[in-house]
Write a structure and sequence with these properties.
The protein is of the alpha+beta class. Helices cover about 30% and strands about 25% of the residues. It binds guanosine-5'-diphosphate (GDP) and magnesium ion. Guanosine-5'-diphosphate binds next to helix 5.
């Protein structure tokens, strides 16, 4: 149910809290300033004090922000978005770096690449692939908790000398819960004690049946260290993407997800955004969580300025007034007024929720007496 604290209600009406309390007292209700009252009571109070009330439902404010109609009228293929998961020390970072470096064209800024949280490479068949560069189950879980579905394919890294470990199993469960296909990359195949066959049979226990065991899960043996079979891995990802037939409409205002964000000393708030639908352009008015702004510049994963970014493209976005949170969904809106309406509403919602918690809703009697 919608609720508000007496303090917040008074603030919004620019009335004194004590006057609200007095009015409620006249109606036989005893309250402290920190108490939470329901929306109907709040409306009565406000009207009694001569204010007009406009109750805004979340659906009104957020209406049309995401999944707007017209999405389906012009779908074109988009690159797959891949997350690498697996147990600690099995080689996630090494693999991400190896794939990235193998793809860096010589002479490109001396081979120095930006780390913006995501990058794009090209598979041997010429198809682009986007990697989320922040391996880790925490990020994956945080995004899913915010309703952001970012990943199309999970590459499950399992070290051939170590086998299936607790975080391997966690990753399998994450991928399954998100309904995302797994490609198994058996890593460290260069090691003398590598036992890829053992990995395959261990995976069977978790119902991951790779192709060589008669299943349908794509698999490849790799060495991030020796850069063995990296092209094969990219080919498999491209193949998996074709099977998924990933499509999106580039001709609409952009929507996406914040992959990471920070406050940069020189540049101000910088957010890496994965565009998922539509095309983001310099000059667009954007909202993410309770932050908004106007896109001042877009930079690709090589640090180069771009004027626009389409579906599955990761870009650094400059122009937010403050840093949003990783996992926040981003949308382009038509005006600054609309952006303000949304962010103010979300800010208020956050405050109300915090106040409701602070007011001790659900606190036990024991706690209240101590
Ligand atoms: P992460 O924790 O999954 O990100 O794993 P890292 O990429 O940090 O790798 C953990 C350790 O394994 C590092 O010492 C790497 O050098 C090593 N390593 C990663 N890939 C390979 C590989 O293919 N072969 C060998 N021999 N060592 C590897
Ligand atoms: Mg790592």
């Amino acid at each position: 149910p919608e609720t508000i604290t007496i303090q917040e209600l008074a603030n919004r009406m620019s009335e004194r809290g004590v006057d609200v309390i007095k009015l409620l007292m006249k109606q036989g209700q005893m309250h402290k300033i920190t108490d939470v009252i329901d929306a109907d009571t709040a409306q009565l109070v406000a009207e009694e004090l001569g204010h007009s009330v406009k109750r805004v439902a979340e659906s009104d404010v957020e209406e049309g922000l995401f999944d707007t109609p017209g999405e389906d009228d012009h779908l074109v293929s988009r690159p797959p978005v891949v997350t690498i998961m697996g147990h600690v020390d099995h080689g996630k970072t090494s693999l991400l770096d190896a794939i990235r470096q193998a793809n860096v064209v010589s002479g490109e800024a001396g081979g120095i690449t930006q780390h913006i949280g995501a990058y794009q490479v090209v598979a041997p068949n010429g198809a682009p692939i986007t990697f989320i560069d922040t391996p880790g189950h925490a990020a994956f879980t945080a995004m899913r908790a915010r309703g952001a579905k970012v990943t199309d394919v999970v590459v499950l890294v399992v070290a051939a000398d170590d086998g299936v470990m607790p975080q391997t199993i966690e990753a399998i469960n994450h991928a399954r819960a998100a309904n995302v296909p797994i490609i198994v990359a058996i890593n460290k195949i260069d090691k003398p004690d590598a036992k890829p066959e053992r990995v395959r049979s261990e995976l069977l226990q978790y119902e991951v049946q790779v192709e060589s065991m008669g299943g349908e899960t794509l698999e490849v043996e790799v060495s991030a260290l020796k850069r063995t079979n990296l092209d094969k891995l990219l080919e498999l990802i491209a193949l998996q993407a074709e099977l998924l037939d990933l499509k999106s409409n580039p001709d609409r205002p952009a929507e996406g997800t914040v992959i990471e964000a920070r406050l940069d000393r020189g540049r101000g708030p910088v957010a890496t955004v994965l565009v998922q639908r539509g095309t983001m352009r310099v000059g667009d008015i954007i909202v993410a969580g309770s932050q908004s702004g106007r896109v001042r510049a877009l930079l690709d994963d090589k640090g180069a300025n771009v004027t626009s970014a389409g579906p599955s493209f990761p870009v650094e976005v400059l122009g937010f007034a403050g840093a949003p949170d990783a996992g926040d969904r981003v949308a382009v809106v038509e005006s600054e007024a609309r952006a303000r309406e949304i962010t103010e509403y979300r800010e208020r919602l956050k405050r109300d929720k915090a106040a409701a918690r602070g007011a001790g809703a659900g606190r036990s009697l024991v706690e209240m007496m101590s």
